[in-house]
């Protein structure tokens, strides 16, 4: 009987551990994660996508083995029947290696002026006139079914072109017009860009927890005050970007065209697509990353990074914040703020707020000096403070969030004003 109890207890404990473990898959082009596909017919190798896959398999998964398990699949694996249904998050990475104009219909191949339609999904890499319509259809269907089941996606670089075919814009008229509308970049590093450090600007106030462990710099930009360095000095840079340019395109037209203000276009982007802008240029005309919340009942959530500084192959320098932001995003998608804050990314600094609910004074518990910002549920900043005690008695009752900075760490908490 004692052995039976022990066996049952062990079984319950094991089931509980398994229930807490999240499963994350990486989907890339190569047949194995460590290949840069030297067989591509245009002669270009997939160094960026390989670097991302190697980091995921050899660094990210071992670092989080207590709470995350994962695997690598190729696009072709998924199209040909690999079971992805039991994963919580899928990271689809495609920097594509080839010329950016050939990726404008990704995951479909583009059609050349002479009618040739290239394949950009096979394990062999880019293929001249490599017709693969069935492979494309099967891949898109599998990812769409995953997303429509409420699961989460991280889309890297040109995988953002798949937002429409994965079902994110279902229900909108001409949904393909809501894909990122601007792409550019080189197939090889431009020596003129090597010397300086490159970064861009963070504006994701609702998900500032994604900045955990990332040091930001102060900037005076139209919509943000935080800049992140992604590529250090001496890093070879290709500046391959996929982004939304708000100076033309469907969002521009929906907002009223040339008679609209930038603020109206940004609002149209966020409300129409149910999206939060994460990365942008300083004047706010280029959206370089976003979180797409479910537009339709049962849909999942997507984080997409398309900035030219989201570069995985970084010879000669550092792309540490590319890795850190990706690590944070995967953990956040897998388990929300609790999973990200429970991982010891920066020494587990103890930060908290009390009381909650609060009627008059909100206290911040922290060992270091703090600065904080309080936002209402519409994302409007209403209080800024550098004190650990904040008077909130004049706030109307309701739900709020507070973003607390201690050192280089940002944490966000929700609270209720009574």
From TrEMBL:
Keywords, comma-separated and alphabetical: Signal
Span of domain Secretion system C-terminal sorting: 353-415
Domain DUF4960 per the UniProt entry, residue ranges: 43-333
Pfam families, per the entry: DUF4960, Por_Secre_tail
InterPro entries assigned to the protein according to its UniProt record, in alphabetical order: DUF4960 (IPR032526), Secre_tail (IPR026444)
NCBIfam families the record matches: Por_Secre_tail
Name the record gives this protein: Por secretion system C-terminal sorting domain-containing protein
């Amino acid at each position: 009987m004692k052995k039976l109890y022990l066996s049952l207890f062990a079984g319950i404990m094991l089931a509980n551990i398994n229930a807490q473990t999240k499963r994350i898959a990486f989907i890339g082009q190569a047949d194995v994660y460590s290949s840069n596909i030297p067989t591509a017919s245009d002669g270009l190798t997939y160094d960026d996508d390989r670097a991302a896959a190697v980091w995921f398999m050899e660094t990210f998964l071992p670092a989080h083995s207590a709470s995350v398990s994962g695997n690598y699949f190729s696009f072709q694996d998924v199209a040909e029947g690999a079971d992805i249904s039991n994963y919580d998050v899928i990271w689809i990475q495609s920097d594509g290696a080839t010329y950016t104009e050939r990726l404008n219909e990704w995951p479909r191949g583009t059609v050349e002026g002479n009618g040739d339609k290239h394949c950009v999904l096979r394990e062999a890499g880019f293929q001249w006139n490599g017709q693969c319509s069935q492979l494309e259809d099967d891949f898109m269907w599998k990812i769409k079914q995953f997303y429509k089941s409420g699961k989460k996606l991280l889309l890297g670089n040109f995988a953002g072109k798949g937002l429409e075919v994965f079902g994110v814009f279902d229900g909108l008229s001409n949904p393909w017009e809501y894909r990122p509308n601007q792409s550019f970049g080189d197939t090889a590093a431009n020596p003129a860009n090597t010397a300086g450090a490159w970064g861009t600007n963070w504006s994701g106030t609702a998900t500032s927890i994604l900045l955990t462990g990332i040091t930001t710099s102060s900037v005076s930009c139209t919509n943000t005050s935080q800049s992140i360095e992604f590529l250090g000095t001496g890093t070879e840079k290709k500046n391959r970007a996929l982004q939304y340019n708000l100076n033309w395109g469907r969002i521009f037209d929906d907002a009223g065209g040339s008679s609209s203000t930038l603020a109206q276009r940004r609002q149209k982007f966020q409300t129409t697509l149910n999206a939060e802008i994460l990365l942008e240029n300083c004047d706010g005309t280029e959206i370089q990353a976003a979180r797409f919340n479910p537009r339709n009942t049962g849909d999942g959530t997507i984080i997409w990074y398309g900035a030219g500084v989201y570069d995985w192959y970084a010879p000669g320098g550092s792309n540490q914040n590319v890795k850190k932001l990706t690590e944070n995003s995967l953990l956040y998608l897998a388990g929300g703020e609790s999973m990200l804050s429970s991982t010891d990314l920066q020494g587990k600094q103890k930060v908290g707020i009390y009381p909650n609910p609060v009627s008059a004074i909100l206290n911040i518990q922290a060992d270091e000096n703090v600065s904080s910002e309080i936002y209402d549920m519409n994302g409007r900043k209403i209080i800024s403070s550098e004190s650990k005690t904040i008077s909130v008695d004049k706030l109307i009752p309701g739900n709020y969030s507070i973003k607390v900075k201690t050192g280089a760490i940002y944490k966000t908490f929700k609270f209720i004003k009574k």
